[in-house]
């Protein structure tokens, strides 16, 4: 991209926003589907920016043609959004304690994303976003330690996870009990199908009942 860069470039945000809209329109980010429309969009975009009448000559925003090759463009967009929001959150939290939990949850939700790029960028620069070097100092784990509500929110998260595990275990136990009731007194035949306690198949039992009933059917 031939853009004059600030520490945080609105052009990057614009590119990801435009690309995400295009993906939504075509319901796919498969290169074989999106590359053609994206190329047309880039040409139109270039024509607009290169016009002499285009006002912001000192900070032109050009389309990023590499987006179509980025398999993890959604993750990159999310990382950049987080990095752009970092300063605002840092400045806001000390003055507005009530929104601390909300911001804590937002930052915490980006911890795994940050680890993903930390690992990816430590192995090779080929698959690392250009803006990563400006973002790597904003590790969510370190940032959360500065939140006044950190301990409270950590405990709340732990309690929520514990309740979720308990609910899952209870649900699993209920399902196993239902299966046990359904298959109670049954064995498995050599062919792998269920047998009732008298050695017959459940289907055979049903067919036998149908036959007995038909003898007395007066219709």
From TrEMBL:
Protein name: Variable surface protein Vir4
Organism: Plasmodium vivax North Korean
């Amino acid at each position: 991209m031939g853009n004059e860069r600030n520490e945080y470039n609105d052009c990057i945000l614009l590119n990801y926003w435009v690309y995400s809209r295009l993906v939504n329109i075509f319901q796919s980010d498969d290169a074989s589907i999106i590359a053609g429309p994206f190329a047309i969009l880039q040409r139109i975009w270039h024509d607009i920016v290169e016009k002499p009448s285009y006002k912001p000559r000192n900070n032109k925003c050009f389309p990023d043609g590499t987006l179509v090759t980025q398999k993890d463009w959604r993750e990159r967009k999310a990382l950049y959004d987080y990095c752009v929001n970092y300063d605002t959150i840092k400045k806001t939290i000390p003055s507005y304690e009530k929104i601390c939990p909300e911001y804590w949850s937002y930052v915490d939700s980006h911890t795994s994303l940050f680890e993903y790029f930390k690992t990816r960028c430590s192995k090779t620069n080929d698959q690392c976003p250009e803006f990563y070097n400006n973002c790597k100092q904003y590790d969510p784990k370190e940032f959360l330690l500065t939140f006044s509500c950190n301990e409270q929110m950590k405990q709340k998260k732990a309690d929520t996870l514990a309740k979720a595990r308990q609910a899952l275990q209870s649900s699993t136990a209920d399902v196993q009990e239902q299966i046990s009731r359904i298959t109670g007194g049954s064995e498995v035949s050599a062919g792998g199908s269920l047998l009732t306690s008298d050695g017959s198949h459940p289907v055979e039992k049903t067919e036998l009942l149908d036959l007995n009933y038909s003898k007395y059917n007066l219709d």
